[in-house]
Write a structure and sequence with these properties.
Elements (H helix, E strand, L loop, with lengths): L5 H11 L12 H13 L5 H8 L4 H9 L7 E6 L6 H11 L3 E6 L14 E5 L1 H4 L15 H7 L4 E5 L3 E3 L10 H10 L34 E11 L4 H6 L4 E2 L6 E3 L12 E5 H4 L21 H16 L2 E11 L7 H7 L2 H14 L9 H16 L4 H21 L4
Parallel strand pairs: 1-2, 1-4, 2-3, 6-10
Antiparallel strand pairs: 4-9, 5-10, 6-7, 6-9, 8-10
Helix pairs in contact: 1-2, 11-14, 14-15
């Protein structure tokens, strides 16, 4: 058996240190390709290492990345607000999440230690990590802890799924890959300017119907993907009390673009977005006075969705809803009837909806940051005098803008 050559030993040595190298541009292309193949075979092709190879501008490397369908990892943000034991959650999602880096944000009000199975590439953020932000008026407790994950993520796309949700099964009995479906929604165009009656024309087996203007068929970039859920519905306190035993069992195999100007109650239960673009508007701002730990007595994600939709409409971006589904458990128990006595969400929505439906941001707002700044001023002027919670929401939006500039604007 021939001993390895000096060149082979050199490449083996480089492979051992690949995660710590900073520049490969001086390597000849044939050695670069050899090292790239060895890196893949050794399972050492991380996002950082991939960028190191792509920075060499080697055409063969770029071609290999395309042919092998190598994709940059995502960051599912997994807030832990209902239970400290996440074993069932992670084991159920293992086939889909084990490929990606995961951010787990622990509710700052939770005293128990988290229980998470091994075998995942993850980072857990706690109350002490939130302290690096300094004094801030933004409350990251309860379901709002997910937004801290949005802030500290450094990936282009974020997928957020509540910790009481498990993978769903489609009509054929196959387990739904929520990550893949969210990415399909975000990476195919949206069509907000003219409704297609066959729903998303970019899905396999669909297309634009007769009469759809050809000038609009290219669509626009989709920035927000709103998934749905089976079993336990996402109701407000009134409906929760009346239909406490009702369960959603209908799996509708469809995705659609939300039309321009249409508002929708976005839910943080199962959502994904382009963080690099929408990050400045993905904030926890509106908090009801008696808001607790249950979905049915919160409005922060609904408010966030209204703001994001207005911004997307102004900048000609798309929002999709429908697939993917998740299976939502009954873990969220609570005294909805008592909450109903003090819940002011109905009055709040009756006040805000007319404003958002008629809202037209000015042509001078050409970035998401511009839109958030203008939207903040409108909320403060139009809604602030009517209710103190709107004034606080405007303050939180201003505070988020500062936090985004100081802690969130950096990308991977």
């Amino acid at each position: 058996m021939r001993p390895p050559s000096l060149l082979s030993l050199t490449l083996d040595s480089a492979l051992l240190r690949i995660a710590h190298l900073h520049d490969l541009s001086r390597l000849p292309d044939h050695l670069l390709i050899d090292l790239f193949r060895r890196t893949i075979a050794a399972g050492k092709l991380t996002e950082k290492v991939l960028k190191l190879f792509l920075a060499t501008d080697c055409e063969e490397i770029a071609l290999l990345v395309q042919l092998l369908n190598i994709k940059q990892p995502l960051v599912p943000v997994l807030p832990t607000t209902l239970q400290p034991n996440l074993t069932t959650f992670f084991e159920a999602w293992r086939p889909f999440f084990s490929r990606f880096h995961i951010i787990v944000v622990k509710d700052p009000d939770m005293a128990e230690e988290l229980q998470i199975p091994t075998g995942f590439d993850l980072k857990v953020y706690t109350k002490s990590d939130m302290g690096v932000l300094g004094a801030t008026s933004i409350d990251f407790s309860g379901h709002s802890c997910r937004y801290f994950g949005y802030l500290v993520s450094r990936k282009k796309y974020v997928i957020s799924i509540d910790d009481n949700c498990l993978p769903a099964k489609d009509n054929g009995g196959l387990t739904v890959d929520a990550v893949a479906q969210h990415m399909s929604n975000l990476k195919t165009p949206a069509t907000p300017f003219f409704f297609n009656t066959l729903y998303d024309p970019f899905r396999k087996g669909a297309d634009f119907v007769r009469g759809y203007p050809f000038s609009l068929r290219e669509g626009v970039e989709c920035m927000l993907s709103c998934g749905l859920w089976l079993h336990n519905a996402d109701y407000d306190p009134m409906t929760h009390v009346v239909k406490r035993n009702q369960r959603n069992t209908t799996y509708v195999d469809a995705v659609m673009t939300v039309p321009l100007g249409a508002m929708m109650p976005v839910s943080g239960i199962n959502v994904a977005f382009n963080r690099e673009v929408l990050g400045p508007v993905m904030f926890p701002a509106l908090r009801l006075r008696k808001e607790g730990k249950h979905r049915w007595d919160t409005l922060e994600d609904v408010w966030n969705g209204l703001c994001a939709k207005v911004v997307c409409d102004r900048l000609r971006y798309g929002v999709k809803t429908g697939l993917p589904y998740v299976m939502r458990s009954d873990a969220e128990a609570g005294k909805a009837l008592e909450s109903l006595k003090e819940w002011e969400g109905v009055k709040v929505m009756d006040v805000v909806l007319p404003l958002f439906e008629s809202l037209k941001l000015s042509s001078t707002s050409v970035t998401v940051e511009d839109c958030v700044k203008e939207l903040t001023s409108i909320v403060k002027e139009k809604l602030g005098p009517q209710n103190a919670i709107f004034a606080k929401a405007a303050d939180a939006m201003e505070e988020w803008t500062k936090l985004w500039k100081s802690h969130g604007a950096q990308s991977a």
